[in-house]
Amino acid sequence: AYTADQLSALLAAVARRRRLVPPAKDSKFAAFAKQIVSVAVRFTNDCRDLIKIAASRRLFDLYDAAGDGVSGYAAVATVLKRAVDGLHDPYLDVDALVADQQTTTRKRKTGTLLAAELPVFARYLLLAAFVATYSPKDSDKQIFTAGSSQNNPKKRRKRDDQGTASSKVKKSDSIDDGARKAGPQAQPLDRILSIHAYVVANQLGQSVPVRSDAVLRAFAGLVKHKLIDRVHQKNDDLSQLKFKCLLLPGDAFQLADTLGCKLETYLPAAFRH
Q1: What's the distance, CA 99 to chain centroid?
Q2: pTM
Q3: What is the pLDDT of residue 219?
Q4: What pLDDT, on the 0 to 100 scale, is given for residue 235?
Q5: Cα distance between the two ends of the chain
Q6: Low-confidence stretches of the chain (pLDDT beneath 70)
Q7: Tens of pLDDT along 105-131?
Q8: Which residue, among 15, 6, 19, 16, has the nearest Cα to 52 in the 3D structure?
Q9: What is the three-state SS of the chain?
Q10: pLDDT at site 182
Q11: CB burial class (10 A; 0-12, 13-18, 19+) of residue 82?
């Protein structure tokens, strides 16, 4: 069996013989080969398998553009792992995997930039949809009830004296555990709009109608731009439409930062950033 260093050297030699890259890039390709081997060596030490990946010029170009070391590896890691998983697929096309990743990255950047360019009003509405999507309805009372014992020391002491604080912690843990297991869930429009009204009032000190023509138009715009998705489920009550926010958690927290909003305030502990 070959060692990792021997496999890397073999890949580099094959690349030179096949002229996979210009001679000026030989040293860069040698580093690229080491990255391939570091991911694949646990699954195969057959050079013929590894050359299927190394022969992808698009993958090498992706690595080359990102730079050596950690940056280069980060650029190609996802494709490498997918390629290794598909090594025994006779239709494996590494170039196609690279193209797929680049398309996905462009879509994510487009969605994030679009969200950041939304009016403040619509940004709060999108964040409300995110909060609803990532928190179970059971958490609403705990998170959104004004004047709860979390915010009122006198009530908190009184409840502690009555021995109810520990049960409250257990309930909170149960909610967080349920949210973690359930993952993002489609939610009724009315719940999203109610959360939006609460968040705006809490952040801006402004009272807004839960449901108005302006709110509904803004919501329709978010659906149109595919930042919120209307979810079709079997046995759904047609009078109770459900929607899911398509922002990833990292993007949602970045969007909240543009508003000076601490998004974790409105989420169960399981999903805090």
Answers
A1: 20
A2: 0.51
A3: 94
A4: 56
A5: 45
A6: 68, 106-114, 142-183, 232-240, 270-273
A7: 766 666 666 677 788 889 999 999 999
A8: 15
A9: CCCHHHHHHHHHHHHHHHCCCCHHHHHHHHHHHHHHHHHHCCCCCCHHHHHHHHCCHHHHHHHHHHCCHHHHHHHHHHHHHHHHHCCCCCCCCHHHHHHHHHHHHHHHHHHHHHHHCCCHHHHHHHHHHHHHHHCCHHHHHHHHCCCCCCCCHHHHHHHHHCCCHHHHHHHHHHHHHHHHHHCCCCEEHHHHHHHHHHHHHHHHCCCCCCCCHHHHHHHHHHHHCCCEEECCCCCCCCCCCEEEECCCHHHHHHHHHHCCCCHHHHCCHHHCC
A10: 52
A11: middle
Tokens linked to 172: 């909170």
Output the CA–CA distances (angstroms, integers) from residue 14 to 89, 129, 162, in the order listed. Answer: 22, 52, 75
Q: What is the pLDDT of residue 201?
A: 92
Q: What's the pLDDT at 148?
A: 40
